[in-house]
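Hi there. Long-time user, first ticket. I'm pasting a complex I've been working with (about 282 residues overall). I'd like to know whether the download I got is complete or cut off, because the file seemed smaller than I expected. Thanks.
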Amino acid sequence: MIRQLLPILCILLLLSGCVPNEFTVENQTGEDANEAENLLKKDDRIKGAAALFYEDHLIVGVRVKTFDRFNKRKIAKELEKKLKETYPDLSVFVSADSKILTETNKLILKDDAKGIKKKIHYLISLSEEET
Amino acid sequence: MDQKKYAKLEQGITPKPPILKNCIKAFLVGGAFCLVAQFIALFYMTFFDFTERTASNPTVATMIFISMLLTGFGLYKKIGQIGGAGASVPITGFGNAVVSAAIEHKSEGYVLGVGGNIFKLAGSVILFGVFSAFLVALVKTILVKLGVVSW
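Hi, the file is complete. Here it is re-exported in full:
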C-alpha cells in the first residue's frame, strides 16, 4: 500500500514546489510605482514580490532566493532604506517574511478598500513580534 | 588470552555496521520529520496570525505532541529502528524520551514512578540545553555591550 503511494507522494511533493514567483505591484496613490517595480526586479536576490501603495503607506513583501534566506532580514532592511529614499512621503515597510507576502497579495486581490489601512497596521505589528 | 588479543579477535568477528547506509536512512527519516514540521508551520501561517518567525513555537509543540502520541501507540520505536539518529535528534526524539520513560515506570506508581522518572532520559537534554543557552546568551550579551554585534 505504502509502496504504491510513495511515487505519487514524491511527485506531488516535487510539484508543490512550483509556486509561481511573480512581481505584483498595486498602486492606489498618485506616486510613480514603476521605480519600486524596477528596484525590486533589478535585485537578483529576490525571486518574487508583492507591493501595495495605499494612501500614505507602501507595504512590500518579498520572497528571497533559497540561499539568500540566511540574510533575508538584512536584504529587507536594505530594500526598505532604498524605497524610503525613493518615496520620502510614504511610510515604507518591507519584509521578507512569507506571511507578509501572502497577506499583501490577499490585500491586492481584495475588492473593497474597507479596512485595508487597519490590516496594514496589523501586519506591521505582527512582524514586530519576536516570539 | 590477554586484552589486546581479545580486542583483535572481537574486532574480527563483529560485523561492520553499514555506516553509509545508516547515514542515508537517518538523513531521509530526519528529513521526513522536518518536511511534516514545515507543513505544520505553513498551516499555522496560513490559517492563524503567525509569521515565519513566530510560527516555530506552535510547530515545535505540535511535533512533540505528535511524537508523544506515536510513542504511546508504539509506532515511534519502529521509526527509530529505521531512522536511528534521524528519529532521535529532532525535537520529536525529546517527546519520545519523555513519554517512553513515563510509560516504563508507570507500574511503580504515579508520584515516585512516573513523576520521579519522567525526565530520566530527557533531563540531560534540559540541563545541557539550558546551560548552553545561558553560555551563548552570556557571550552575546558581552559582545553587544562591547559593541561588536547588535541584537
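A couple of notes from our side: Chain B has a mean pLDDT of 91. Residues 17-120 of chain B form one domain.
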